[in-house]
Design brief:
With about 120 residues, this protein is mainly alpha-helical. It has one domain. Helix 1 runs antiparallel to helix 2. The relative contact order is 0.16.
Length: about 120
């Protein structure tokens, strides 16, 4: 049975809202613990000519929350970006192809015409 595109879009919105709540929790944690949140990693931590970022390890401070908090915030931001893209694609599909209920109704009309 085909899933409803409308329901799928709604559930993606619920997932995105949950991620926004998680992001706010990370912001609260960072404020409470004095952890700097960065939009992007500092250029000093970028490898020369590779474009890849180094992980600034600190064996003397293994419990420093800066790295895991910033990685998780980055992961949440990337995931919400992907959810936004998936939602936009499903909305385009819904507009061009219609939803499950609409398709079912068309089948019902076709059945009535054939009878």
């Amino acid at each position: 049975m085909e899933k409803s595109t409308k329901s799928y879009i709604k559930l993606l919105g619920v997932a995105r809202a949950s991620l926004e709540e998680l992001l706010e929790d990370f912001r609260d944690f960072s404020r409470g613990h004095g952890v700097e949140l960065r939009d992007k990693w500092d250029k000093r931590e970028k490898r020369e000519n590779t474009g890849k970022f180094l992980l600034p390890l600190s064996p003397l401070h293994p419990l420093d929350p800066f790295i895991p908090v910033n990685y998780m915030v980055n992961l949440v931001r990337r995931t919400t970006y992907l959810l936004d893209r998936q939602t936009a694609a499903l909305e385009r599909k819904f507009v061009t192809e219609g939803g499950y209920t609409e398709k079912l109704f068309q089948k019902r009309l076709a059945y009535r015409r054939g009878s």
